[in-house]
Amino acid sequence: MKLLILCSLIFLSCISDRDVEGVYVPVDYKNNFDTICIKMNGIYDRKVYNKNGKLLLKMKGEWQRSNDAIRFQSFYLNLDDDLEKYPKLVQDTMGNWGGYLGYNNGNLEFCIGHLSASLPNQNCYRKIKK
Question: What is the pTM assigned to this prediction?
Answer without folding.
Answer: 0.83
